[in-house]
Recover the amino acids of this structure.
């Protein structure tokens, strides 16, 4: 027993020394909103890989969608001694204590994916309004083109009150509302969850059988609608547009049962955020908003995005 | 308590008490029909049956647990974990039997744990299953590091999206489970014993019912049925999602209570729960058919549930 304890103690000491030996490597703290979603898992994995490749260390904490926990998490990270903080805020206004603590510790903060109020080095994210607009433009094109487009669209909405949902909605409407021939019927909020979207779409399809296009605020929900259409034997008659670039959707695009998706590659976002974080530590200046960019995946280019080992398509 | 009716004329209150749920469902169905001509269509009912089958199957297990005076907050997480197990096994090439079997077994084990800790360990099931809710969700996320599992074989999709004649297979499975459970509750010693355990477990013990064993079985059944719900959901959505079934426990509890069960145990039944699930489904269905905005939906849904339960209570305390 004593021997075991002795060995353990030595191991701990040696490990401790090793950690001190690497003390001059940059430490990035990452407070993630949740790891309860494949999107954020992919983002985190890419961030970790990039940090490793650049010789930095990344410590992450998972707020589990709880703003109080997030503020505590950030405090813990600062106590551990991080050099820079990547913050994916549960909500922009709720992170004031975390921002204060970071300012006191002189640690620069970079918002990632979702904005945060307060003094930021920069915000690395995507323009969801533009993504919605891209989806809208595609819809207009599929329904007959500018000025001639017509038909009924069912829009499956994301999470109530969320900025992403509002942007993806507003961007889309910016494109389709100019077309007098297009009518958009909105679903109840389905929280980006396929099971909820299936139920809602099943009901809405009963009431709107003349629908010609479905637009969902993410691919998971759009695939739910596809499932209902398939069951009704209408999969070929109704066009489907989603957002994200979920691999299952990209495959359906290649098979011709799905019209298009707007890429929201989480891996690139994670990689870019780590690069920016290290850049900030090197004293580089960044604009207020660093756009991770997007792309439209349609049948013509779907093939090059297909990769079975990935959950989300990656920027090419 | 049954003999009372013999020399009374059956009053409308009694009628209401007995069939209140049917009346509610009828009432909302009439509203629905006036709002949307699409409501009373076969297709709509078939959809409703399919949509509700997962919650319905889970609610049968929940009814049994509530009958013995317990509660199972772990159903949603166990559903997710089982859904992940079946999906991961199928995607790695195991057959339907092995994959489904392993998933059901996992549900049974989780339920067995809940039952043993609650009945033998004396921990209130609210706490035991709260722990299961958190831990099983963690396990579900751990199976694939939070990633959903796609590429499920076509043969697996039948359970969730297939049809037997004009009716959805998943809905028929739900009806079958409800009927079997109702028969077990009514005609077997085990079933009737559950009412005794829920009514007064000390009295039940003294009259020779194996209270601990019955309780463990009940939690196991709830675990197995949650697992089955997870399998049906994965089959229907063609994807295994570790985040599936969030809030499912609340839907199931609401359905069981709307179905006339008492949360202190000893009363209620699976037919009631069946009606409760339908009532909840019809309420959402009306709103969706009518195209009512989400916020109003939530408010009205809450209001209707409270109103239904208050009326229920009102007629129950009147004798």
């Amino acid at each position: 027993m004593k021997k075991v304890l002795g060995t353990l103690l030595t191991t701990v000491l040696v490990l401790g020394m090793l950690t001190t030996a690497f003390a001059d490597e940059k430490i990035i703290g990452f407070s993630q909103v949740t790891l309860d979603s494949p999107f954020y898992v992919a983002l985190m994995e890419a961030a970790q890989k990039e940090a490793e490749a650049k010789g930095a260390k990344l410590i992450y904490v998972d707020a589990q969608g709880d703003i109080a926990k997030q503020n505590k998490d950030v405090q813990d990270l600062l106590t551990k001694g991080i050099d820079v903080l990547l913050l994916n805020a549960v909500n922009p206004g709720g992170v004031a204590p975390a921002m204060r603590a970071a300012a006191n510790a002189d640690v620069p903060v970079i918002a990632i994916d979702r904005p945060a109020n307060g003094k930021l080095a920069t915000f690395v994210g995507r323009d969801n309004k533009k993504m919605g607009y891209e989806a809208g433009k595609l819809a207009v094109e599929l329904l007959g083109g500018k000025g001639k487009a017509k038909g009924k669209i069912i829009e499956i909405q994301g999470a109530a009150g969320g900025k992403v949902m509002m942007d993806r909605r507003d961007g889309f409407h910016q494109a389709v509302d100019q077309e007098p021939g297009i009518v958009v019927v909105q679903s109840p909020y389905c929280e980006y969850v396929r099971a909820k979207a299936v139920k809602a779409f099943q009901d809405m399809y009963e009431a709107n059988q003349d629908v010609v296009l479905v637009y969902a605020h993410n691919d998971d929900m759009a695939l739910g609608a596809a499932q209902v259409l398939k069951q009704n034997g209408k999969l070929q008659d109704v066009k489907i547009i989603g957002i994200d670039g979920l691999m299952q959707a990209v495959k359906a695009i290649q098979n011709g049962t799905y019209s298009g998706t707007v890429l929201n590659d989480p891996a690139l976002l994670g990689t870019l955020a780590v690069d920016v974080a290290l850049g900030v530590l090197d004293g580089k200046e960044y604009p207020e908003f660093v756009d991770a960019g997007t792309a439209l995946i349609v049948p013509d280019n779907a093939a090059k995005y297909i990769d079975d080992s990935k959950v989300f398509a990656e920027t090419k | 308590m049954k003999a009372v009716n013999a020399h009374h004329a059956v009053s409308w209150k009694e009628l209401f008490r007995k069939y209140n749920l049917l009346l509610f469902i009828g009432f909302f169905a009439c509203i629905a029909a006036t709002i949307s001509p699409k409501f009373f269509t076969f297709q709509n009912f078939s959809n409703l049956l399919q949509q509700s089958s997962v919650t319905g199957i889970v609610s049968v297990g929940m009814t049994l647990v509530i009958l013995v005076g317990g509660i199972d907050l772990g159903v949603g997480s166990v559903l997710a974990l089982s859904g992940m197990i079946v999906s991961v096994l199928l995607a790695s090439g195991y057959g339907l039997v092995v994959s489904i079997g392993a998933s059901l077994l996992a549900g049974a084990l989780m339920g067995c744990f809940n039952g043993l800790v609650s009945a033998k360990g004396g921990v209130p099931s609210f706490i035991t299953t709260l722990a299961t809710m958190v831990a099983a969700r963690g396990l579900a996320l751990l199976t694939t590091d939070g990633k959903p599992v796609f590429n499920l074989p076509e043969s697996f999709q039948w359970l969730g999206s297939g049809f037997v004649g004009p009716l959805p297979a998943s809905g028929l499975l739900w009806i079958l489970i409800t009927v079997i459970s109702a028969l077990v509750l009514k005609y077997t010693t085990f079933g009737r014993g559950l009412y005794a355990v829920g009514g007064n477990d000390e009295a039940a013990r003294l009259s020779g019912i194996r209270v601990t064993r019955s309780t463990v079985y009940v939690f196991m059944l709830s675990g197995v049925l949650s697992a089955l719900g997870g399998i049906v959901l994965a089959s229907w959505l063609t994807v295994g999602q570790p985040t599936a079934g969030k809030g499912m426990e609340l839907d199931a509890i609401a359905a069981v209570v709307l179905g006339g069960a008492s949360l202190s145990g000893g009363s209620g039944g699976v037919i009631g729960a069946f009606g409760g699930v339908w009532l909840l489904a019809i309420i959402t269905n009306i709103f969706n058919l009518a195209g009512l905005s989400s916020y109003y939906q939530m408010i009205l849904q809450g209001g209707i549930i409270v109103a239904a339960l208050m009326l229920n209570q009102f007629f129950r305390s009147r004798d």
